[in-house]
Design a protein that fits this description.
Order of helices and strands: HHHEEEHEE
Number of helices: 4
Helix content: 55-70%
CATH architecture of the largest domain: 2-Layer Sandwich
Number of domains: 2
Distance between the termini: 101 Å
CATH class of the largest domain: Alpha Beta
Largest sheet: 5 strands, antiparallel
Structural class: alpha+beta
Strand content: 25-35%
């Protein structure tokens, strides 16, 4: 059978021999391409998708790195603001200090307290947790004295709020016959919790 194939090959012309040689030479390459080439094509597509994905991650990381100085500056600014707020919003309320500060402001404006009654501390759980302590104040004074006292309280270093202000006009028993105002107010002192 091999002899017969050899004889048939010898009987062929040059072009037919070249065609057979080309087919025989291409068969191993075609086999390798169809057997292993499809797997290599899938690997190539997977590698290209991985490259695109990794390039996106790289760009995100690069953008974050470029924004790092701005974020560090913001962090420093917020840290300073927090420190200042903590100085104004203490961890503990010192009633002696509050009484002394309030009494000093009242004395400066000519106000005398009828009563100074601290209430029970309340913990407020809002967006930020904090505690507040109400102090009920009762006094009688002229309107201008009251407004000066309220202004001084509002401008204290500590965070203090005035709430539930009630004013009633009363005639004083003095020679000038000036109108005095009975005032009840709740002074709210805050602390961090």
């Amino acid at each position: 059978m091999l002899e017969e194939a050899r004889e048939n090959y010898k009987d062929m012309n040059y072009k037919q021999r070249a065609l057979i040689m080309a087919l025989v030479g291409l068969l191993p390459a075609a086999y390798i391409y169809y057997d292993e080439g499809s797997g290599l094509s899938e690997k190539l597509q997977s590698a290209q998708q991985t490259k695109i994905s990794e390039n996106k991650k790289y760009q995100v990381a690069k953008n974050k790195k470029e924004n790092l100085p701005l974020l560090e500056e913001r962090f420093t600014k917020v840290t300073k603001q927090l420190r200042r707020a903590q100085e104004k919003l203490p961890n503990k309320i010192y009633m002696d200090d509050i009484l002394h500060s309030t009494a000093s402001l009242a004395k400066e404006t000519g106000i005398r307290f009828k009563s100074f009654k601290p209430g029970a501390e309340r913990v407020i759980k809002d967006a930020h947790q904090y505690a507040e302590m109400p102090i009920a104040l009762d006094f009688t004074a002229k309107y201008s004295q009251i407004m000066t006292f309220f202004d001084n309280i509002a401008n204290m270093e500590k965070i203090i709020h005035l709430r539930n202000i009630s004013m009633t006009a009363v005639r004083a028993h003095n020679a000038a016959g000036s109108v005095m105002i009975d005032t009840k107010v709740e002074l709210i002192v805050f602390r961090s919790s």
